[in-house]
Amino acid sequence: MSTESTPNPVSGQTSDTRKPLGFGMTMLASAVGVIVAFAVLQFFGFLILMGMLVSIISSSGKSDTVLTGTDYAVELDLTGEITECMGTELQGLLSRGKTVSMEELTKAIDFAATDDRVCALYLHMGGGTLSWAQAEELMIALDDFDAECGKPIIAYGDAYSQPEYFLATKARTIGIHPAGMIDFRGIGGEVIFYKGLLDKLGVKMDLIRPASNDYKSAGELYIRTDMSAANREQVRAYISDIWDYCIRVMADNRNNVLKAYHDEHVQPSDLLTVQKLNTLADNLTACLPDEAKTAWMVDTLCFEQDIMQLLKGNYGVKRIVTAQSYAADADYDEGDHGIAVIYAEGNVVSGKSEGMQTAVYGDDIAKALKDAAEDDDVKAIVLRINSPGGAATASETMTHAVIEAKKKKPVVVSMSGVAASAGYEMACMANCIVAHPTTLTGSIGVFATIPEVSGLLRKHLGITTDTVQTNRSSTSLTVTRPLSPTARNMLQRNVEGFYQTFIRRVAEGRHMTVEEVDKIARGRVWTGAQAKEIGLVDTLGDMMTALNIAAELAEVEIEDCHLVKYPKEKDLWAQIMDMYYEQDEEIKLRARLNAIIPFYSELEEWSRMEPLQARLPFILRIQ
């Protein structure tokens, strides 16, 4: 083919006689280029990720400081994120010690009591995520520690949340930064409502719930601008119950410490009473360090290096080791019998996880229960729940798995901060349920929310829709049109049916009649102490209480048992690949948005949830 230039008959300029590529060929070439560039970027991104992980792993070798020497204090660092169980090996490496689990903390306390190398426990407070129930779990462990060895417990923080101060009252000495603060003001709950925003956007929301479920208030976030009477009643009841319990414990703990270790400086009038603590909370006169010291809520205003000197000078401490490091090097004697421990932490969702465990996946929990039930080494199963609930289908999947597992081995539930709605349904069929007095549980009910966005599309975007249908209800469940009476009736039957299934499950599991369950259900949230009184919980206690009950039901001695965690952890390479495909940047973006926009995580979760939900009745943060 000739490629010489020839004169243009119009302009007289020469032109290239080669024919240009067709539009299709140009687009194909561009597409191929984009694909190749994307593949190259993905490949280099993968290499960078691998390099970072190799660097982290190589710099995070296990220290031998715990294995040698004597005279150290174990630090329980509560300033970061606190989870229920130890994460995977990869998660531990990536967190670089910023995340600590209740499993590690309680294990460290347990072993430190009888370890002659340990001189003291150091509670490091400030800015963490400790819940009331988690604080209570640790307090029970500290009670046992104190009774067994009498070694000093020292607490210090730049600031204290209320659950942190609750725990700190077990300490022999409470120190606070001179410019710090104690968040001591009683418990308040705040619910955010979106109706005003939705009205401005032209979005209408339908809330479908059983006729009796007045307390199931989650959907009210979208149809009201304030709390309903039922919602206000239940929130007031359970936050009051939690506060009344916790303030009594704080007063008793602190007075015992003052009498035992500061008696020469303390007058009888200085002792704390429930009335005095409530007055301090009402007037916010124990928040500032000097006021807290005057009220004998803390012992000293100091810096952390002063606490280090106290540990060294008074108790002979030579160095500090973290609870994570100490727990990793402290091994239980391997007994002949296994007790399986399964952790269900987070929102309940359907399906199985495809990467790092960020929620309670129904299929994952069901498989873990099945595997544990079929393991000949396992004699009993303890299911640890810290979940507000979620998808109704996943709830049913897990509840069925508990029923099947219970046919083979005892199943005991240990509730943490929250085990409500779907979190309670999976618990109700267990042989025994253990909760903390401050656990939030119950919320036996269901709801569905259906948005209608035609106003938003038309008013703000200029978008309209039209339909063609074969049947009268073919387009009745689209978000671009209001619910028809027929569609609303179908959804009402759906939620009513699930509610009846739910209360029948509870009635069977708790040996009650359906009528008895219905009276205490209706979506109402209860504390663990209240739930025990009405029969939804068997006993109050911690994880160790549940393990002891499991061993007893299996007719084995707890001393002859070892713990087996389910699901089994993948090897490190598999975890790395899972994380790579989890789209880490998307996770980071959500974290950044949540820091900027209040309740972003909840809004993002609502956008992805299934229509039928069995979860806590609203988004409520209590402190």
Which properties best describe this structure?
623 residues; alpha/beta; 2-enoyl-CoA Hydratase, Chain A, domain 1; 2 domains; 8-stranded mixed sheet; 6-stranded parallel sheet; 26 strands; 20% strand; globular; disordered N terminus
Task: Report on this structure.
By secondary structure, this protein is α/β, with parallel strands linked by helices. The protein has two domains: 72-189 and 227-329, 2-enoyl-CoA Hydratase, Chain A, domain 1 (Alpha-Beta Complex), CATH 3.90.226.10; 337-465 and 477-584 and 598-615, 2-enoyl-CoA Hydratase, Chain A, domain 1. The chain has 23 helices and 26 strands. Helix 15 (422-428) links the parallel strand 18 and strand 19.
Can you summarize the main beta sheet?
A: 8 strands, mixed
* Total number of strands: 26
CATH C-level class of the largest domain is: Alpha Beta
Strand content: 15-25%
- The total number of structural domains is 2
Determine the N-to-C terminus distance: 81 Å
Mean pLDDT: 84
- Structural class category: alpha/beta
Q: Sum up the overall morphology in one term.
A: globular
Round the Cα radius of gyration to an integer and report it. Answer: 29 Å
Question: What is the helix tally?
Answer: 23
